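Lab notebook, bench 4. The sequencing result for the construct came back, and we need a structural model before the next group meeting so we can plan mutations. Quick request posted to the team channel:

Model the 3D structure of this chain.
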Amino acid sequence: MEIMEKKYFCRTCGGLRNQCMLFEKKKTGEEADYHFYWTKRFQLIECAGCENISFLESYGDNFMMTGNEHDGMEYYENDDIYPPYLKNGEELKQLNQVPENIRRIYRETVNAFKIESLLLTAAGFRAVIEAICNYLKIKQANLAERIDLLHSKGHLSKSESKRLHSIRFLGNKALHEIETPKPEQLAILLNIINHLLGNLFINDKMMRDKLDIAVDNYEEFTTMLLKLVKKEMIAAQISIDNILGKSRHLVSKKNYTDFTAAFVKEVKAGKYDFLEIVDETKSLFHIKSLPDLKTLWEFDI
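Done. Here's the predicted structure in token form:
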């Protein structure tokens, strides 16, 4: 197969690449009274490097010309590659680690960006932030306050919070003032959203089985504790220290005291039906069965 004269985008390689044509169907038409003539070409093309297959649709007519009288005029065609691809920015990998509702909105937004629906893209990025706030139970009257709470509750750094406000500003202009953003602006916002989702939902999960991660909030502590309850512990009397084992070092001394007290209080209140207290002062428990983690912690499963 011969290499085509023009390079086209390969979604696998991530850039313009030499292509080979596998199949072509050509259609022409005219409106003679107006001296108007057009051509459509439909081609199945294959990347000369990775052999990825794409569909190319090209359109041209006798009014589509570029250049000037001094340098000469040339006909050109409009090319569309399918499936659509991002011309600016990069789509997030490991998206399966992101909660379903956020993942769905993200995909719809990126798809809008691929087909250059710029107003919808800006609104979509704003909606991603709203979905993150909903998931993390950050409920406030308006998005500006919710973003600030993401920072004050420790989910974001101050710099990350300021970046999210930039997304809010652009989304508001798109929604309320119908001001179309530039693709370059949206590419920056996509990068910010990717970084945010990575920090909140992906990086820790990727590290979890390979590196020790400090446990510095009560939800993480209880999740870790209950995941460490093993079948052989059933019917035994065991302390929190023994359940945690080597994972005890992931919790600071002060947090360990506070978290243990809070956990004992929850057990006394009947939150965990697979546990009962044997000795409150020693944080000693009787384990009756394995915990049902899926019903207890949707966040971390």
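The radius of gyration is 28 Å.
Will bring this to the meeting.
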